[in-house]
Amino acid sequence: MDKTKYVIQAKNLKKSYGANKVLKGININVERGTMLALLGPNGAGKTTTVRILSTLLNFDSGTVKVEGHDIKTDADKVRSVIGLTGQSAAVDELLTGRENLIMMGRLYRLTAKSGKARADELLQEFDLVEAANRPAKTYSGGMRRRLDLAVSLIATPPVIFLDEPTTGLDPRSRLAMWEIIRKLMDRGTTILLTTQYLEEADQLADQIVVIDGGKVIAEGTAKQLKSKIGNDRLELNFADTKNLEAAVKVLGKNVTETDEKEYSVSVAIKDTNKDVRNTLDILAKEKIAITSMTVHKPTLDDVFLSLTGKQKPTKTTKKGAK
Amino acid sequence: MAVELVFEKKPRILLAVQDSFIMIKRSSTHIIRNTDQLLGTFFQPIMFLVLFASVFGGAISLALPKGVTYLNFLMAGIIVQTVAFGSTTTALAVCNDLQKGIVDRFRSLPMNNLAVVTGHIVSDLFRNTISTIVMLLAGLVIGFRSSASLLDWVAITGILLLFTFAFSWLAAIVGIFAKSVEAVQWLTFIIIFPLTFASSAFTPPEVMGKYLRFFASNQPITHVIEAVRSLMLGMPVGNHVWLAVIWSIGILAVAIPTASLLYSRKTS
C-alpha cells in the first residue's frame, strides 16, 4: 500500500472509561487532500475520536498514524502538522483576535515576523480586520468560531481536524463557515470533520463515516449512503379525496406513500429542481390543484432509521472527557 | 498563499524557554486587562495594612520588644500574607485554563506545555511585586520606618521573590487539582488562612498556646516573615534567612515536579 496515500490512519481504535466503552474498534482512513466526515449523534464517539487523533487523549488499543508519524511515539511531530478546531472555541478571551493569532503562530514555531504577516492575512481572509484589536470575549459566536479556525490555520498545517465547526451557529454563519472550509479543501488540505448534520457532510465531504455507539455503522460517499437511506421526497397536499385520487393516478409509480386522511402523497425525487418541476407540470396538465407542498431531505434520523432500524439513539455516552 | 512562513530553527531547549516567555506575556496581559483583579492588587493590601495596624495595634504592641512599633512589626507579616493570598491568582488562572477549551488548543501545539503554568506563575510574581511596593509606600505614609541598608533590601527582595515563586507553584498544584474555580477559592482559603495566621505575621508566637506556638515558630511562613522583619528593622536575623531560603527551595524541588506530573496527567 502506498504509504503516503492515507494521511490519517486509525486502526481498530478502542477507548473506554472504566466499564463504559466509548470506542469499540474504529477504523478510519483519510486520503491526502480529501475530507472525511465523521457523522453521528451526540455521544456516538466523534469527539473522543478527534481528541485521540489530535493527540489530546490516550487510547487503550489500536494504532494511529498521522502523516506517517505514530501518535504514541511521535506526538510532537504529529502536532506540528495538524490544526484543531474544537467544539468550544478555544481562543484566549482576554487577548485580542490579532494577539491570539500571533501567540499561536509563535507557539507553532513561526518566527515573529512571519507570524505577524500571517495573522494579518488570516484576519483579512476571515473578515475579522475590524475586530482584530478587540478582546475575543466581545466577539459573537460566529466571529469566535472564525477566529478559532483562523488560529488553527496560522501555520497552514496540512491536516485539519474540525470538531463540529458549525454546531450552534445561525444559518448565515454556518454558510460562511462552509465557504471557508471549501477554500481550505481547494488548497489541498486534508480534513477530518465531525458533524451531527447529514447535510453538512453531504455538502462538504468526499467520504462519510457514520458512527454510533462507538462503532462504524456505515461508510461511503454521500451518494452511496443516500442510495442506502432513500432519496429526497416531495410531499403534496390536496383539498379533497377527488384531487388526491386523480393525482395518485397520474403520478403512477412515482408515488411512494399515500395518506388518505391527510389527502397527501409523497413522491421520490432525485434531482430536486427537475423532478419537482416535472411533477407539478403533470398535475397542472391534468388541472389537479394542490394546497401545499414540501421537499423533505433525508435527516440523520432517517440515516439511523435505515441503517440500524431504530430511531436516533438518545442515550448519552460520556463524551471525550477531560 | 501570499505570506511565506518562516519557522524557528532553534534547539528544543531554547524553544521551550521561548514558549515560557510567550506564556508570561499572555498571563501578564491578562493581569492588565482584568481590571477588577487589578484594583484588588492595589486596594486589598492597603486595606489589610491599615485595618490590622489600627485594630490590633494597641493590644499587640504590649507583647512586642521595647522600641518596636506595631506598624513596623506588622509590615513584614502583612507583605508575606498578601503574597501568599496573591498566589490564589495562579491557582485560579491555571484552573480556568483547564476548565476552558484553550488548554486543548495549547496541547495540540508542538509547544512545551508546562509553559502555560510557568506563564501564570511568573506574571503572578510581577503582580505581587507591584502589590508589595504599593504596600510599602502606603506603610511609609502612615509611619512605617525601616533601618535596612540597600544590601538588606536586596536580600529582602530576593527572599520574597523566592518565596512567592515557591508558593505560586504550590498554588498551581491546587489549580490543577481543583475541579472548579469555586473549589480553588475555598481550597486556597483553608490552606493559606491558617498558615498565615498561625505564624508570626500578626503577633509574636510567644503569646500563643504551647502546641500552636511550636507550629507557629517553626513553619516556613514564619521563617520568611522573621527573615524579612529582622532585615527591615535591623534586628539579629538568626537562622531565619537560611531557613527561609532552604524552605523555599525545598518547596520548589517538590512542587515543580509534582505540578508537571499532575498537569500532564490532567491533560491526557
What does this structure look like?
The complex is a heterodimer of chains A (322) and B (268). Chain A is an alpha/beta fold. Chain A folds into two domains: 6-227, 3-Layer(aba) Sandwich (Rossmann fold), CATH 3.40.50.300; 231-297, Alpha-Beta Plaits (2-Layer Sandwich). Helices cover 36% and strands 27% of the residues of chain A. By secondary structure, chain B is an all-alpha fold. Chain B has helices at 12-33, 35-60, 70-86, 88-99, 102-107, 114-142, 150-177, 181-197, 210-218, 220-233, 240-266. The model of chain B has no long low-confidence stretch (mean pLDDT 90). The A-B interface holds A 51, 54-58, 76-77, 79-80, 82-84, 86-92, 94-95, 99, 103-104, 106-111, 113-114, 117-118, 121, 135, 151-152, 155-156, 187, 322 and B 1-8, 15, 18-19, 22, 25-26, 29-30, 33-34, 98, 100-111, 266-268.
Q: Helices, strands, pairings?
A:
The complex is a heterodimer of chains A (322) and B (268).
Chain A: E1 6-17, E2 20-31, E3 35-39, H1 46-53, E4 61-66, E5 69-70, H2 75-79, E6 82-85, H3 97-107, H4 112-125, H5 141-152, E7 159-163, H6 171-186, E8 190-195, H7 198-204, E9 207-212, E10 215-220, H8 222-229, E11 232-237, H9 241-251, E12 255-259, E13 264-269, H10 272-285, E14 292-296, H11 300-308
Parallel strand pairs in A: 3-8, 3-9, 6-7, 7-8
Antiparallel strand pairs in A: 1-2, 1-4, 4-5, 9-10, 11-13, 11-14, 12-13
Chain B: H1 12-33, H2 35-60, H3 70-86, H4 88-99, H5 102-107, H6 114-142, H7 150-177, H8 181-197, H9 210-218, H10 220-233, H11 240-266
